[in-house]
Amino acid sequence: MDKNSKIYVAGHKGMVGSAIVRILEKNGYNNIITRTRQELNLCSQNDVNEFFKSEKPDYVFLAAAKVGGIMANSNFPADFMYENMTLEMNVIHSAWENGCKKLLFLGSSCIYPKMAPQPMPESCLLTSSLEQTNEAYALSKISGLKYCEYLNRQYGTDYISVMPTNLYGPNDNYHPVNSHVLPALIRRFHEAKENNLPFVECWGTGTPLREFLYVDDLADACVYLMNNYSGNETVNIGTGKELSIRELTEKVAEVIGYQGEIKWDSSKPDGTPRKLLDVSKLEGLGWKYKTELDEGIRLSYQDFLNNPVRTQR
What we know:
Layout: E1 7-10, H1 15-26, E2 32-33, H2 45-55, E3 59-62, H3 70-75, H4 77-97, E4 102-106, H5 135-155, E5 159-164, E6 166-168, H6 181-194, E7 199-203, E8 209-210, E9 212-214, H7 215-228, E10 235-237, E11 243-244, H8 245-256, E12 261-265, E13 274-275, H9 280-284, H10 293-306
């Protein structure tokens, strides 16, 4: 990408999209196009077509998505499938129809099988069944990356897909029910500390293993890959490090300064037992993460404190 290339970031208000905009601006890209949900309905094929005809972006980062935690994915699978498949197909198809030079599609590590080999290589995609709690979201993401692959094969486009691990950081969603595990823990322990609660109850057993990547590191990797990678195979983006949910919970409590008891409700679902990405391909391409988890949690908590409006989601 040239510094004055026309770059469209879909989903720039979200955690991932806003991080991509920050990294692009930091690196001197000065022709970034954005649209809010009110300005452009990505689920409307006609609206998306008109936008691409008018703007003709050279590059697209497709970071827009309907996202949520275990409960949201379990309770609203039809919504997650419809909205994600519709918006991503609209954007990818219109990018192709209007001569977009390159597109980067953001998937999710949940696309890999529930019992995938660990760490999970890109090649394990579609080798066995998915985790039921987020199957609808995973299927929508698989459809998007496959459409990019098929366009490359049939029409010679240069569309790439990346699979991030669990993300956290500035502009996260701290909703008490519909957020992901790390921001949910930040809010829960903060409120417990503020209200002097004697204990905090957490879902599951705390035994599942997870990997976490600071969102600004993800954004940096996306810009790097847009400039340095072409190919049909997806690229995992992560740290290559994992810890248990119990260990994560203890780290969050320590950063926030909560000293009460942590209780575990084993009647609630754990989700996938283990989700660690094989990042050897990414490291072979010359990129490695920078932000360690302890520092990332501290930065995320500061974001939570400095942006109280987000706690109302």
